[in-house]
Amino acid sequence: MSGIVVAGAGAFGTALAVALSGTREVTLWGRDGPAMARLSGTRSNPRLLAVPLPPALDVTSDPAALERADILLLAVPAQALRGFLADHAEALAEKPLVACGKGIDLETLEGPTAVIAHAIPSARPLVLTGPSFAADIARGLPTALTLACADPEEGTRLQALLSTPVLRLYRTTDLVGAELGGALKNVVAIACGACLGGGFGESARAALLTRGFAEMRRLALVCGAEDGTLMGLSGLGDLVLTAMSEGSRNYRYGLHLGRGESFEPGVTVEGAATALAAARLGQRLGIDLPVTDAVAALVEGHIDVGSAVRALLDRPLKAE
Ligand SMILES: NC(=O)C1=CN([C@@H]2O[C@H](COP(=O)(O)OP(=O)(O)OC[C@H]3O[C@@H](n4cnc5c(N)ncnc54)[C@H](O)[C@@H]3O)[C@@H](O)[C@H]2O)C=CC1
Ligand SMILES: O=C(CO)COP(=O)(O)O
């Protein structure tokens, strides 16, 4: 039996640990010692998830657990991944590291697999991504995700290890497509939320979702992604979930932007930093990303939603 360690005890890491615990040996590792000790005692964190932890799930803040792992699921936010890897590089060497966060690093403009490859060259990066709210996964509701692994044999082995009767993993070798789909859909979800929050209606949201998806594909394909991956769970599938549901923090953040309200402090909103990163990447690669650029300008407070929508409508007419 492989020892799975989920690193990052936020909503998603806790949900994944809950879902995988039972038939597998699973440890949930978090950096905050007192918080993990409390969680170990109470076996629940209602602020994060409505379900209790299964008795078999081990909970710790001891870094030695990272070293003992056969495989690690990294459920820290994208902007924290580089720091986490630097802190634990020795313990994580030569292991399969499954990136579960969705974003592009704002400083390096890299996705999680390149961040892992640079920080720990001996590690084997994978990506686990797709439409899944932590609350749904923790409750055992049916969910389908994409597992990307460069080595098809290892991908097949880990697909079996990380699937459960209700958590169905599809595999691919397209790491770039999987991670960019997951990262970029958050930006489009912010745009869709801002559109509804600003009172522009559901037809406009459908237009933004579709044109935003065209942008996602444009950027991802130039970065080496396969179109089939973008059309699958990790791209279109996750975009549909995130851009249509108030269960999404990115969408809710967009709603607040659209209404001109401030958002709940301290909540992880990956699409905000990723919009800035993707806009810079688009400039660097010479790719037209009007929706992304508008979200980046909104996030930075340079424009309001009304002017963002007007700027998008004023663009020259073109072929679809
Ligand atoms: N919540 C959800 O429904 C889903 C989240 N995700 C992705 O999972 C990632 C994490 O999201 P959540 O768990 O929801 O966020 P969260 O805000 O609930 O938790 C983030 C956790 O990461 C920890 N963390 C931050 N920096 C760290 C560091 N340097 N070292 C160790 N731990 C660190 C924090 O202490 C916190 O426990 C994000 O990239 C998100 O896009 C993916 C699918 C679903
Ligand atoms: O990635 C997610 C769903 O697949 C979670 O979305 P939010 O981070 O917007 O809540």
TrEMBL record:
Binding site for sn-glycerol 3-phosphate: K102, G130, S132, K185, D238, S248, R249, N250
Matches recorded under Gene3D superfamilies: N-(1-d-carboxylethyl)-l-norvaline Dehydrogenase, domain 2, NAD(P)-binding Rossmann-like Domain
GO annotation, cellular component aspect: cytosol
Chief localization: cytoplasm
Assigned keywords, A-Z: Cytoplasm, Lipid biosynthesis, Lipid metabolism, NAD, NADP, Nucleotide-binding, Oxidoreductase, Phospholipid biosynthesis, Phospholipid metabolism
Any Pfam family matching the protein: NAD_Gly3P_dh_C
Limits of the Glycerol-3-phosphate dehydrogenase NAD-dependent C-terminal domain: 174-309
Stored InterPro entries: 6-PGluconate_DH-like_C_sf (IPR008927), 6PGD_dom2 (IPR013328), G3P_DH_NAD-dep (IPR006168), G3P_DH_NAD-dep_C (IPR006109), G3P_DH_NAD-dep_N (IPR011128), NAD(P)-bd_dom_sf (IPR036291)
Catalytic activity: sn-glycerol 3-phosphate + NAD(+) = dihydroxyacetone phosphate + NADH + H(+); sn-glycerol 3-phosphate + NADP(+) = dihydroxyacetone phosphate + NADPH + H(+)
Active-site residues, as the UniProt record annotates them: K185
Residues annotated as signal peptide: none
Binding sites annotated in the UniProt record for NADPH: F12, R31, K102, A134, R249, E270
Alphabetical GO biological process terms: carbohydrate metabolic process; glycerol-3-phosphate biosynthetic process; glycerol-3-phosphate catabolic process; glycerophospholipid metabolic process; phospholipid biosynthetic process
Domain of life: Bacteria
Pathway annotation: Membrane lipid metabolism; glycerophospholipid metabolism
Record-listed E.C. numbers: 1.1.1.94
Protein location: Cytoplasm
EC top class, as a word: oxidoreductase
MF GO annotations: glycerol-3-phosphate dehydrogenase (NAD+) activity; glycerol-3-phosphate dehydrogenase (NADP+) activity; NAD binding
Residues at which substrate binds: K102, R249, N250
Glycerol-3-phosphate dehydrogenase NAD-dependent N-terminal domain span: 4-153
Amino acids binding NAD(+): G8, A9, G10, A11, F12, G13, A134, R249
Protein family according to the UniProt entry: Belongs to the NAD-dependent glycerol-3-phosphate dehydrogenase family.
Function: Catalyzes the reduction of the glycolytic intermediate dihydroxyacetone phosphate (DHAP) to sn-glycerol 3-phosphate (G3P), the key precursor for phospholipid synthesis.
Identification of the protein by name: Glycerol-3-phosphate dehydrogenase [NAD(P)+]
Organism: Rubellimicrobium mesophilum DSM 19309
Gene of this entry: gpsA
